[in-house]
């Protein structure tokens, strides 16, 4: 008996397929209630790759101080952005999976698509169980993190490994590590920003307007230990600026979502917005290239808190540009990248070289 699939994978249930693509994003609480938010934060902040402190030291602090206070404040923030179908991250990630499934269907590719969250639901273990129950023997894991970080991409791989420890007859797996400089990703970002400017006008750079490319922050120590995230963010920002025709004085790469008292990657987004406001900058546009789907960090932290900071310190006009979400160019990129990474697996064959380089056909 075939197991019930997620809405995305169920769309392809009419195709008998032993190959699947599993999109993985960070996670979300089940509801904006303090109880559900606390459960989610407890799982998230207990990951040793997220908070790199000894458990004997961190767990008492987490459960005695952090969760009792942060759960309620975070719940209010989640409530301010919650959608009728769930959290923005879940809604957008699920739609990305649906659209990618349609992309494969339209091209006659018998590939099943599903999605999972690293923390919260739908879980990675449940997704793998569901796919295996539906006959899937090969899974391409695609974390939705363009820039590699041990606290994001590696945690997804950790969870996959944990799930496989409980499976005797394991599926074959492949992983996408990062795509921070992929030309298709950069072009999708460019299109997203340009689409916004086509509607709302381009900033007046001659008057000192600024663009911020805000990435999720990490402790500085992670870069010192060899994590490539910082340099990959800088590379993405530089490539996107070039694609948009921005000079070095017209944009900044910043880092948001600081937590705790250790030194973090700089410059900070909040501090930069305060600085630009104090300088009475007329307009600032903020875009978050490292987030492939809008979420609490982009909608609330940037769109509400960041806006308020900029305006309170003297800025005039604040613009938040939506993340890639379901942008067609991004779905095209995901589909093409998936086919490239599926190439050479048993049951796959290269298409003739007359077509686009890097495309593969499943037989």
TrEMBL record:
First-listed, main subcellular location of the protein, grouped into a coarse class: cytoplasm
Pathway(s) it belongs to: Porphyrin-containing compound metabolism; protoheme biosynthesis; protoheme from protoporphyrin-IX: step 1/1
Record-listed E.C. numbers: 4.98.1.1
Localization (cell): Cytoplasm
Coiled coil: none
Any Pfam family the entry gives: Ferrochelatase
NCBIfam families: hemH
Function: Catalyzes the ferrous insertion into protoporphyrin IX.
Protein name, per record: Ferrochelatase
Lineage: Bacteria, Pseudomonadati, Pseudomonadota, Betaproteobacteria, Burkholderiales
